[in-house]
Amino acid sequence: MKKMKLLICVLACLGMNANAHDYAGRVKPHLKKIPLSVLKDKIKGGWAGQTIGVAFGGPTEFRYNGTFIQDYQTIPWYEGYVKKWMDEFPGLFDDIYMDLTFVEVFERVGLDAPKLI
Question: String of b and e for 79-91 (b: at least 16 CB within 10 Å)?
């Protein structure tokens, strides 16, 4: 829960700017406000979709380079499928655990985390 609160804070800060113009002097589009509960739901849905997408694509990753997967090629899905892939091929989830590393840095050193060169 603490990581989720920090992620929401980071995303909110990245999207906030009191100026009505960007650095090139162009007018920025109007920002919309949404309730925090809606933002949380959207973030959780995005992470769930990313996790499901990684597991769903696991059996076909790097097997169909340069072509589309044909309609007749079935991709399995069943209860516990995401857990199976996490247990057996945790490296497949690099798209997700890299996000968690980003959140951990902000949690540990704050929003002013130094840039590594």
Answer: eeebeebbeeeee
Domain boundaries, position 44: 2-17+36-109
Rounded to a whole number of angstroms, the distance between the first and last alpha carbons of the chain is 31
Residue 56 domain-assigned? yes
Neighbours of 100 (CB within 10 A): 14
Q: Evaluate if pTM is beyond 0.70.
A: no
* Residue 83 or 17, more confident: 83
pLDDT digits (tens, 9 = 90+) for 38-96: 888 888 888 888 888 888 888 888 888 888 888 888 888 899 998 999 899 988 888 78
In a domain, 31, yes or no: no
Q: How far apart are CA 42 and CA 55, in angstroms?
A: 20
Q: How many domains does the chain have?
A: 1
Does residue 115 fall inside a structural domain?
Answer: no
